[in-house]
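Let us practice reading a record.
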Amino acid sequence: MKEDQYGDGPVEAVMLPEAGARLHRLRAFGHDLLRTPSDPRRHLREPLDWGAYVMAPWCNRTPAEPIAVAGQTVSLASNWPDGTAIHGQVADARWEATSGEGEYLVRGGGDGWPWDYEVKTTIAVTGATVSLTSTLTNRSALPMPGGLGVHPWWRRPLRVAVDAAIVYPSNLEPAGIPAPVAGALDLRRLGAPADGLDGTWTAIADRAVDLEWPDLGIRATLRLSGTADHVVVATPHSVDAAAVEWQTHAAGGLERLVQGVRGAMKLLEPGEAMGIDAELAFRQFETVRHAPERT
C-alpha cells in the first residue's frame, strides 16, 4: 500500500491514498499519537477503527432507512452494529493524488445516496503544525445535502478541553436535542474524559480544542474553521483510543435538515462546495514523575 510522508521536523505524518486518504500515522516529537495498526492493510478491513479519516457526504450517524430529502430519497445501508449508517462513504475509498501539493481527491455517489459529489483533502506539515483542509462539492444537477468532518482516533491516556456550553448528550440518539453541559459532559476544563462518552459539543468558544498526552509530555491546540462548529468526543469501551472529531453537523443531520432544526446538514446547490479546516499545533512540556507513595 502506498504511503505518502509529510514533514521532516518534530512532526511527521503518513497518508494512505488507497485507504480513504487517511492519516495512518501522526508522530510528534518521536511519539505516535494516533491509533495506528502495525499492518496498514487493517485500515481497509476495519476502516472506521484506525488513524484519522475524512467523513463525507455526511458525518456521525443517520438512520439506515428511506428518507425524502430535497426531492430525492436517501436509502442507506447500515454499516454499524447499532443499525445506523455512520461516517459517510469515503473512509475506505481509493483517493487519487492531484497536482496540488499534499492534495487528494475522490468522487462518490450511489449506494443509496442519489447525488454525485467529490471530496478533496489537503495536508501540510510545517515544523510542529499540521494543517488539514477538506472540501465537499455537489457534482449533481440537483441540490444535495452535505456534511463534512474528520475522525481521528487519538492514543490514550488523553486529556481534553472543549470550551463549549452546549452538548448533544448522545450520538446514539440521532434525533436528540442539545442541552447545557453538566457533570461528565462538561469538558470546559482540561481533564481525562469519562469512559463511555459519545456526544457532540457545539457553540465552541474561539473554535479551539486543547489536547494533552500527559505520559508523553505533549500538548496540542486544535483550531477550527467557522464551519467546524461541532466537536464529537467519544471514549468507547471497545477501542483503546479516544475520538475527538470536528464536523459540520450533529448526528441525524439528514432528518434535522428535513425538519429545519438545529445541527442540520447544509443543502448544497449544484456545483456548490463546502469546506472544513483545522490546524493542530503541537508543543512539548516537562512531565513530572512522582515517587511511589510509601506503604
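A brief commentary: The CA atoms of residues 8 and 173 lie 43 Å apart.
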